[in-house]
Amino acid sequence: MKTITLNNGVVMPQIGYGVWQISPEECEHYVSEALAVGYRSIDTAQAYYNEEGVGAAVSKSGVARHDIFITTKVWISNAGEDKAARSIDESLRKLRTDYIDLLLIHQPFGDYYGTWRAMERAYRDGKVRAIGLSNFYDARFVDLAENMDVKPAVVQLETHVFSQQNKMRRLMADYGTRLMAWSPLARGMNGIFTNGTLQSIASRHGTDTAHVALKFLLDEGIIIIPQSTKRERMAANLALDDLELSSDEMEALRRLDTGHPLAADFNDPEMARFLLDYDRQHNPANR
Ligand SMILES: NC(=O)c1ccc[n+]([C@@H]2O[C@H](COP(=O)([O-])OP(=O)(O)OC[C@H]3O[C@@H](n4cnc5c(N)ncnc54)[C@H](OP(=O)(O)O)[C@@H]3O)[C@@H](O)[C@H]2O)c1
């Protein structure tokens, strides 16, 4: 499995398995399946409310903890230095581990400077191996990266063939920060699975459009965390080494970029209001 070396020397798999919108009850099952077919990197978050399922699957898998890379994210309702620090300990407990491989600030809202300081402390204390951001764009990213001691190891952004994040990739390169693609299959949006360019390349290689879309991101040096609830697709999404895209094909795929994300605009005030209220609305503990 290909790996990426982060700006602090930590090595992580380039492909992982994402568990957004997988219920707490089902999470252990799907993560166990993912580990069984060969995934060694799992992406969860406090606000997915399924960290316990990840922890249970990892601890029962028979795979050594140091061979599995776990990413989780601090939610807005845990923002601020003290609250974030407590939430990191809570994530460790739920994940049944004494260290998190990669910890991200999930959203660019709330007291994220306080959160970053708590994450830096957890990093220095050995509770976390690398820290980074999610959904931070442009000036917000630069402001945090310039002001804080530990430079973000990754930024997780909506990234797929239709949203290739070229501007952010250029900015992130100044800090050695790597791009981690969320929704690398655009969650099926914009007709990705029937797109003409993807289809013609896929048929030339005797493969699926999904695999071309994922291999494009891998060849661009991007970390990906596709999700599937189907074991065969989980396995196939992981086995892309033999798919060799030509430079003409890569160029044609670069032309699918629209220059903006499809799912989420983090400068939209309504998006901010939705996310600021998300935990109250969605946390099973609040029901
Ligand atoms: N940081 C953030 O704010 C943020 C936001 C969103 C997501 N994420 C992370 O990114 C991960 C992945 O994103 P995502 O779950 O939104 O979407 P995604 O990985 O882009 O797409 C998942 C969808 O694609 C389908 N699929 C998967 N493999 C396929 C294949 N080979 N052929 C055809 N269809 C296929 C799946 O259906 P089946 O299940 O039927 O296969 C599912 O409906 C999340 O789970 C989460 O960990 C992070």
How would you describe this structure to a colleague?
The protein has a single domain, classed as TIM Barrel (Alpha-Beta Barrel). The strands form 2 sheets. Strands 3-4-5-6-7-8-9-10 form an 8-stranded parallel sheet. Helices cover 41% and strands 15% of the residues. The chain is built from 12 helices and 10 strands. It has 287 residues and is an alpha/beta fold. The protein binds NADP nicotinamide-adenine-dinucleotide phosphate (NAP). Residues 18-20, 43, 134-135, 156, 182-188, 193, 208, 210, 225-230, 233, 236-237 line the site of NADP nicotinamide-adenine-dinucleotide phosphate (NAP).
What is the helix content?
40-55%
* Domains, number: 1
Gyration radius over CA: 18 Å
Low-confidence stretches: none
Distance between the termini: 41 Å
Number of helices: 12
Name the CATH superfamily assignment. NADP-dependent oxidoreductase domain
In total, the number of strands is 10
Decide which structural class fits the backbone.
Answer: alpha/beta
Mean pLDDT rating = 97
List SSEs in N-to-C order: EEEHEHEHEHEHEHEHHEHHHH
Question: Briefly, what CATH class?
Answer: Alpha Beta
Q: Quick one: overall form?
A: globular
Q: Strand percentage, roughly?
A: 5-15%
The major sheet is characterized as: 8 strands, parallel
Instruction: For the largest sheet, list the strands in their spatial order.
Output: 3-4-5-6-7-8-9-10
Bound heterogens, unique: NADP nicotinamide-adenine-dinucleotide phosphate
Quickly give the CATH architecture: Alpha-Beta Barrel
CATH topology: TIM Barrel
